[in-house]
Amino acid sequence: MSDESLAARIDQLVTEEQDLRRREQRDSPDADALEADRERLRAVEVELDRCWDLLRQRRAREEFGLDPDDASARSADTVENYEQ
To answer: Fewest beta carbons within 10 Å, which of 12, 32, 34, 38?
Structure first.
């Protein structure tokens, strides 16, 4: 996956995240719809983290003269448990 396609995917996910946050407010009276929104929002957030991680890996490899195509997406568990 190229940097450009990763950036496009990130843009799509950010748009979906914003839509879900708006829907979350609208769906608050409906517990089932609200729960579905929250589950999807969490999945989008994880996917965003994975995409950003992969993009950072690619850029770091390129910066150090390595092939960015050798970077690979890390698991959700790995990305979500990074120490900040």
So the answer is: 32
